[in-house]
Amino acid sequence: MYRIRKSYVYLLCRALGTVYKSSETFHDYVDDTEFVEIQSVYEWLANLAVTSCDPDLGLRAYRNMHPAMLGALGYAVMSCATLGGALERLVNYYPLISSGSLLKLELHDHIVKIVSIEVTKKVPRVFIDAGFSILLALIRWLVPHYYVVPLGVELVYAPPGERAGLEEVFGRNLKFSAGHNVLVFPREICNYPLITASPKLDRLHADFLKVQLESSPTGFASSKIRRAVAQSLALGVTPTLDSIADALKVSKRTLQYSLRNEGLSFSMVYNDVRQALAHDYLRHSVYSIKYISATLGFSDQSSFYKASLRWFGMTPQNYRDLS
């Protein structure tokens, strides 16, 4: 069962406006738990879009977004130094909001992609539009001195009859019936400084989110596996499927099954962790290339160089020189 934080849904309801009668509000669908089944949210939103006769209903969230909609995570991204750091934090800890979708941050030579992979089927358009509207509004809220414009937006649903509302929010470069929902931006936005940045709060927020994710019922298995892989590398031990399963006190088969439910494999998670650590070490540390290569479990520096070319499109030293 996939779940979503109830407080997020309540605030989303307010952002979309009161178009339901009082007897038809989301309160009729839930109990008093902190999280609710995401399928009931989808049904509620689908009914809401029909009742309102507004196919662009989800786009209303763009003008009504506030970081508080994301709870503690919303405030935690505000303390990051750069927009790139804020996006990384949002992606890494999005399971605190929902287990119904998985966010990925893909860094390329000149562009950055935010990919939303829907774990469940038949996600209503209104939910997709609202989610991307909130994300784009959050980005612009975090860096008000820059007007961040998407280079393109890919959406999984079929082309709607009317595109004016979508183009007003996301621009005209829209692609429909895509494999995943994707927002594409210029790579340079990752370096934009946040006016709300706070190094002291940033450290506190990072520690707080880790604790929250550990205890969250919506935490993806991959999040826990990523932490276990990172801890193993920090100890100088090359992680394997067996060793991580032992560390998490689950069977190898259970670990593989959990990852498959997220459309992932252990090798994919391992590669993502090493890429993220390589980024942090190269851009934010003074460790030598040789040390970083060994810490990330590469048998020799040439293997690290090849991985860096694959990840960042350049050598480790060139990537470090960008900072």
Automatic annotation (TrEMBL):
It comes from the Bacteria. GO terms for molecular function: DNA-binding transcription factor activity; transcription cis-regulatory region binding. Keywords: DNA-binding, Membrane, Transcription, Transcription regulation, Transmembrane, Transmembrane helix. The chain crosses the membrane at residues 68-87. Gene3D superfamilies: Homeodomain-like (1.10.10.60). One of its GO terms (cellular component) is cytosol. Pfam families: Arabinose_bd (PF12625), HTH_18 (PF12833). This is Helix-turn-helix domain-containing protein. InterPro entries: AraC-type_N (IPR032687), Homeodomain-like_sf (IPR009057), HTH_AraC (IPR018060). Residues 223-322 form the HTH araC/xylS-type domain.
